[in-house]
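Protein data sheet
==================
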Amino acid sequence: MDDRTKKDKRAGMIGSTIFHGLILVLLMVIGLSSIPKQEEGILVDLGDSSTGMGALEPRRNESQAQQTASAASAPQQSAPPVETAPETSQEEVSTQDFEEAPAISEEEKAKQEAEERRREEERKRQEEEERQRQLEEERRRQEELEEQRRLEEERRRREEQQRQAEEARDNVSDAFSRSNGSGSSQGETGEPGNQGELSGEPGVGTYDGSGKGDTGSGYDLSGRSLQGSLPKPEYEIQEEGIVVVRITVDRNGNVIDAEPILRGTTTQNSYLWRVAREAAMKAQFNADEDAAARQTGTITYHFSLN
């Protein structure tokens, strides 16, 4: 039942109640005042018992008629009034119907359920959109961080390549400046003159030792002499240059450490550095009990094209 039907029903009942009330008031004022006040009897249906059932009057026989006649001739005793339960007026029932909560129709209930589902779907959709937006922001942030890391690595790589190129250019420039004879003096003593040996190699950077030797190499270890010949590096590439290896020698003349250095080195080839270090570790010098426990010097290898 919709709201409009309920309103029409309520209005009809109120109008009917008011109409009947006005008629009742008019009857009480006009009609009842003209009826003469006198005692009147009450018509009672003919029967033989105070209880009964059915809507049709039963057929009487002669004995029942005689009894009825005798009963009628006998003085009638006034029977006590029968109390009847007050009838519930239709107006009260109708009023009770109005007091109850209005019932929701199936159509209205379906509309409400559909609206609830729509709201729930809209809420889920908004939550999904928010989650996707956060994921997209996180993805962009990660991409930006990754790009920044890539650019930083690229910058560091370029700086390292530039530094290595500058070192190589400086080493080559130093080698040419030492070998072109343009300077008036060279050495580590602090005195004027060109320190070294007449049989030495220009631009080697070592000033004490036996000269080039058979392999174009030499050593510098103050106060110590080489036992046997200087070990030769074994290499199989067509590359030339100079590699200076700093060595550490104990009192027994054993090389306990060797490491290529930049000073005096004219090549950056890692392969030549490795074979030069391996050869330097095999060198043997004279034993000296009065020498330092760890004495440092250099071995210079001159690599040439075969």
Remarks:
- Confidence is low (pLDDT under 50) at residues 88-94, 176-182, 210-215.
- Residues 218-303 form a domain with the TolA/TonB C-terminal domain fold (CATH 3.30.2420.10).
- The first strand starts at residue 218 and ends at 220.
- The two ends are 113 Å apart (CA to CA).
